[in-house]
């Protein structure tokens, strides 16, 4: 009986190791399944591979971990899945010019190495998650041309003052409020593009 329990335990640990080893594959393949892909640009995203480094539109570092996803103007439609926030080494998420809909997952705020988040010209709605303000490495934030509502979270504006954020484009949405220069430094080195207060 003890041997059977030990075998079950070892089998469970082995399964966990396999799942962990393929976590980036699992995440990106789940995202593929959530999207409609009429142009078959994701055809190479094979879930049976050990890592996604041979997939088209995916770039990895020397440790075979995903650092870029480049799918601009790919004809994709559907939501962003929260699990994208678990791509621990992701630096560039370039998804501009698609038909991506739904909200921006707050879990993207866990992408602590992200340099560029480009979601412009999609069909995203809802508020901009304040969790994006956690990404101190973020330099380029392009959310223009969507259907986002609410105000720009103060946490993101703080990235301008204390972080590396160089470009923030949120024009062409349904955002309200204005950005005011509160200090001489900060905004002077950041390009901020925002619509004036939305009219009712």
Tell me what you see in this structure.
The chain has 200 residues and is of the alpha/beta class. The chain has one domain (2-193): Ribonuclease Inhibitor (Leucine-rich repeat, LRR (right-handed beta-alpha superhelix)). Helices cover 20% and strands 20% of the residues. The strands form 2 sheets. A 7-stranded mixed beta sheet has the order 1-2-4-6-8-10-12, with no helix packed on it. The chain has a 5-stranded parallel beta sheet with strand order 3-5-7-9-11, with no helix packed on it. Strand 1 and strand 2 (66-70) form a beta hairpin. The radius of gyration is 19 Å and the shape is globular.
Please supply descriptive tags for the structure shown above.
alpha/beta; globular; 200 residues; Leucine-rich repeat, LRR (right-handed beta-alpha superhelix); 3 helices
């Amino acid at each position: 009986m003890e041997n059977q329990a030990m075998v079950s335990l070892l089998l469970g640990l082995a399964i966990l190791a396999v799942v962990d080893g393929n976590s980036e594959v699992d995440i990106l393949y789940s995202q593929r399944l959530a999207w409609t892909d009429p142009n078959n640009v994701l055809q190479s995203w094979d879930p049976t591979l050990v890592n996604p480094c041979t997939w088209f539109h995916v770039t990895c570092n020397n440790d075979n971990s995903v650092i870029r996803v480049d799918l601009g103007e790919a004809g994709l439609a559907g939501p962003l899945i929260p699990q994208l926030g678990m791509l621990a080494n992701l630096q560039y998420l370039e998804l501009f010019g698609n038909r991506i809909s739904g909200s921006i997952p707050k879990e993207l705020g866990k992408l602590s190495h992200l340099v560029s988040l480009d979601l412009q010209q999609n069909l995203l709605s809802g508020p901009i998650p304040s969790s994006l303000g956690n990404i101190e490495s973020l330099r380029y934030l392009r959310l223009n041309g969507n259907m986002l509502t609410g105000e720009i979270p103060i946490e993101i504006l703080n990235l301008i003052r204390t972080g590396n954020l160089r470009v923030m484009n949120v024009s062409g949405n349904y955002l309200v409020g204005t950005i005011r220069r509160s200090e001489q430094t900060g905004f002077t080195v950041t390009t901020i593009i925002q619509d004036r207060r939305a009219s009712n």
